[in-house]
Amino acid sequence: MENTKLTIRISKNRLEKAKIFAKENNTSLSRLVDEFLGQLPRQNNQGNSKIVNRLSGVLSSKISTADYKNHLEKKYRG
Prior knowledge:
This protein is an all-alpha fold. The protein is built from four helices and no strands. It is elongated.
């Protein structure tokens, strides 16, 4: 991946907090911004509702659709 420079304006207070956070986590401000921007939803996710996007990934990957279906059947039967 090719990197490029970016100039942004933020408050001094936020910048100082970000520098402290980066130092405490052995990273750089550039890496923090890059990681954050990498987590933004892609355009093809715009069709999902806010609740779906917020809950996406909440369940363990070990849980199958069948497990969830069984859970719902037990929950609403009795």
